Amino acid sequence: MDLWYFEKEATQTGCKDIAGIDEAGRGPLAGPVVSAAVILPPAFNDPEITDSKKLTPKKRERLYLKIYDRAVAVGIGIVDPVEIDRINILQASLLAMAIAVENLEPQPDHLLIDGNFPIPSRLPQQPIPKGDALSISIAAASIVAKVSRDRLMRTYHHYYPQFDFPRHKGYPTRAHKEAIRVFGFSPIHRRSFKGVKEYIK
Question: Global pTM?
Fold first, then answer.
């Protein structure tokens, strides 16, 4: 499979700066949703880059550094739990992706988006279901988004150590759900999510 297929297709229509966009953190009970937008140079090649979920944490960290070192541009978008509760996780994910694109310099002329939905942007865009396994730019964005979010969750551990966020990153593991039952929820928990909302008095 040619992971450059969608990038090459866009290039043939005259596009130069093509950004892949992906998010991390739709499923957790706590923490933000974090998106990344990445523009890779045409000569970039690394056979290890793939969907971040298929990589070990150590390999993700190494590839994250390589992507930042070699990319034309990287943008990050973060939407916090309060906004997630207000507009729902799908809309928050799309908003985070749009923010990531806005933070790119230079601005891209074409977007490749992981998933089924377009994002709120006027730029030409192409949603690609399972794009993190089909496009190198989206795969790179998935790595950057995942590492960025994991680092944030480790930082939150200093404020809310009772939840052990470095271990599960806010996902609904048995240990995390038990911690919510014992300690209640923290300011970074998503109050609209099952597993948290039951404890709202």
Answer: 0.96
Residue 44: strand, helix, or coil:
coil
Tell me whether residue 54 is in a domain: yes
Q: Is 69 inside a domain boundary?
A: yes
- Where in the sequence is the domain holding 39, given as residue range(s)? 5-158
Residue 87: burial class (beta carbons within 10 Å; 0-12, 13-18, 19+):
middle
In a domain, 167, yes or no: no
**8 Å CB contact between 73 and 111:** no
What is the pLDDT averaged over residues 152-174? 98
Task: Give the rounded percent of residues in the chain with a pLDDT score beyond 70.
Answer: 100
Q: Is 174 among the domain residues? A: no
Half-sphere exposure of 173 (CA within 13 A, CB side): 12
Question: How does DSSP assign 111-134, residue by residue?
Answer: EEEESS---S-SS-EEEETTGGGT
Amino acid identity of residue 174, one-letter, is: R
> For the stretch 41-61, what's the b/e string if a residue is b when 16 or more beta carbons lie within 10 angstroms of its beta carbon?
eeebeeeebbbbeebeeeebb
DSSP one-letter code for 167:
H
- Of 50-59, 97-106, 181-190, the range with the lowest mean pLDDT is 50-59
Distance CA 147, CA 133 (A): 17
State the Cα–Cα distance between residues 193 and 27, nearest whole angstrom.
9
